[in-house]
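A quick aside before the break. I want you to see a complete sequence-to-structure record at least once, exactly as it would be stored in a machine-readable document. Don't worry about memorizing anything.
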Amino acid sequence: MVLSMTVGSKTRWVGVDPRGSQERLIGQRDESVIDLAHLELRPTEGFALVDGRPLKLSVREFGLLAELARNEGRVVSRQALYGHVWGGDLRAGDRTIDVYVRRLRVKLAEQLPDWAFIHTHIGFGYRLQPEPVGESFR
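That is the input. The structure line, written in tokens, reads:
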């Protein structure tokens, strides 16, 4: 089913999944597969592949990686990441996001040592953007 809606002066088309209530704007990134260099994420299926091989991630690690991938190239605050993956508000001094980012970096570096995926923006959050290691500031 396809519905139209007018926002301001522009009409946007919304596709509705007949199996459920998931909606997405047509032209918006299809989240069934997200390709990032040698990394492939399948958020609807809940798994990641590195060069076609499964990457072992916990549910939270996968959720964090998927949320960063949905915002590829953009800095995402620690608070926003916590809210999307854990739900609720990040408490002052809570290092949960930092710990999980470190775990993700280690797992990705084991499989793809020549690539950096997650970049720190001190005092704000993280940005996911695949770059060869020589070009990255970690």
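Two observations worth writing down. The beta strands are 2-7, 10-16, 23-25, 34-36, 39-42, 47-50, 53-55, 75-77, 115-121, 125-132. The chain has two domains: 1-28, 31-135. We'll return to this after the break.
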